[in-house]
Amino acid sequence: MLSDETIAAPATLMNAPAAIGIIRITGGKSAEIISAITVNKDAAPLFAGGRASIKPRYMYHGFITSPGGEARLVDEAMICFYKSPASYTGEDMAEIFCHGGSYNMSKVLEAVLKAGARSAEPGEFTKRACINAKIDLCQAEAVCDIINSRTSAFHQIAVSQIKGSLSYEINAVKNQLVAVIADIEANLDFPEEDIAPVDIDAVRETLLGCRHKTFTLLASYDYGRIIKEGLKITIAGSPNVGKSSLFNLLLRENRAIVTEIPGTTRDVIEETVNIEGVAFALADTAGVRDAEDVVEKIGIERTYENIRGADLCLVVLDASRAVNDEDIRLLAETENLPRAIVINKIDNTSAAFGYKCLPLKDNETAIEISVKENANIDALKTLILKKSGTLAITSQHNADRAVITNARHAAALETALASFDDAVETIDSGSPIDLLTIDIRAALSSLGEIVGETVTDDILHKIFEKFCIGK
Ligand SMILES: Nc1nc2c(ncn2[C@@H]2O[C@H](COP(=O)(O)OP(=O)(O)OP(=O)(O)O)[C@@H](O)[C@H]2O)c(=O)[nH]1
Ligand SMILES: [Mg+2]
């Protein structure tokens, strides 16, 4: 399918010097545009024969010039043409591999736009791929996820989704529903003909099977969401116990200031850490104590707010000194919250520390570490995964199984599930069979939203505006 409007955009970042920059073009005028702005080393047109003469998927070496007969050279480049329908968007496409850097790339893009393209909107290439049925909507969303992924678990799910794992499972359910509807409608439309009556028990069985598959997919959202958004972990403790040191160690960079002065951290610092492929939003906080200083007081209030909002709180104690009132107060404050007790500085344990006097809950144990000597940090990571309920993700996750990470998909699965329940109820209440097709169609429509068959333009627009330009 050739689109009237040909669009172009940089596909690589323009705001930094780089060896190569890519300008992408898609639409019916792609061949015309690259013909208008390229010459060979002898200054003759590179594509004198027009579209028909350009070898698709072949790298041509040439020079970019301004269009309209101006002979001024812009850059030296490699140019590749993709002939419809064998391209990312399904339309005629071209990619110009020019030199990077903002000025040079903007000049090449300017030549492309002058030759008849308009600037692409965010995600417009992928949107066209979707409209031209090269990929479905959830595969398009996976493109966005791949670009934005920061952890291996999320990346794996996005890659399997782009390969079609989710589409496959959704379409399998949809196909079963379409077959059921066809069966019912054949009976309704041609009752006098010699068609076997609908086996309502078999239909019920099929619907329950579809419901189960939908439910299983929806259930995967529990950990899919964790993989995507990350759980919140707050590091809390009295001043100087080594919270910021632990934060930096887990982050593998010196993000927070560490000094031997109690009260160093004044505000909450949050960063994403990747532990065994799972993302966590990790927060370092101000040490809690009775502070006089106004700034420190506000910081401590924020610590408490953060502790209350966390999925897991690491309560850090200092083994190099006796447990004090501040430690005891924090232990009491976090007693009913999800927490792990972390005893730091075991490289310098004081006889006065008093492990035995710690007011721990029944069966609660503390993990002993030394940030300074990197001791027991792997065990702490395992404990974090275990306590946050994410250990199962790292061991259970099967790359080929579809996992729901997208709230839009989860919402559609939920409405599909309700429609399956309605359908079974319609059967069980002995209602007329044509009512059943209404419920099944509703389920089909919800599932169709996931792959993009039944979404409104509004939703499409919302999905693609989150994309980057050139994708
Ligand atoms: N011996 C020893 N010292 C440590 C260890 N971890 C941290 N420290 C030291 O303890 C001091 C305090 O460390 P920080 O990480 O700044 O402590 P904090 O809990 O963030 O302190 P505040 O921000 O003031 O609340 C620094 O001098 C660290 O070098 C450890 O495992 N062993
Ligand atoms: Mg600190």
Question: How is this fold's topology laid out?
Answer:
Blueprint lengths: L6 E4 L9 E7 L3 H7 L1 E2 L19 E7 L7 E10 L10 E7 L2 H13 L3 E2 L4 H8 L5 H12 L3 H11 L2 H25 L10 H20 L1 H9 L1 E7 L5 H9 L17 E7 L2 E7 L9 H15 L3 E7 L6 H9 L5 E6 L21 E3 L8 H11 L3 H6 L10 H22 L4 H19 L5 H8 L7
Parallel strand pairs: 1-7, 8-10, 8-11, 11-12, 12-13
Antiparallel strand pairs: 1-2, 2-6, 3-4, 4-5, 5-6, 9-10
Helix pairs in contact: 4-5, 6-7, 6-15, 7-14, 14-15
This protein binds guanosine-5'-triphosphate and magnesium ion.
What does this structure look like?
With 471 residues, the protein is of the alpha/beta class. The chain has 16 helices and 13 strands. The protein folds into 3 domains: 114 residues, Probable tRNA modification gtpase trme, domain 1 (Gyrase A, domain 2, 2-Layer Sandwich); 136 residues, tRNA modification GTPase MnmE domain 2 (Four Helix Bundle (Hemerythrin (Met), subunit A), Up-down Bundle); 160 residues, 3-Layer(aba) Sandwich (Rossmann fold), CATH 3.40.50. Helix 7 packs antiparallel against helix 14 and helix 14 runs antiparallel to helix 15. The longest helix has 25 residues. The relative contact order is 0.12. The model has no long low-confidence stretch (mean pLDDT 90). Bound molecules: guanosine-5'-triphosphate and magnesium ion. Magnesium ion binds next to helix 9.
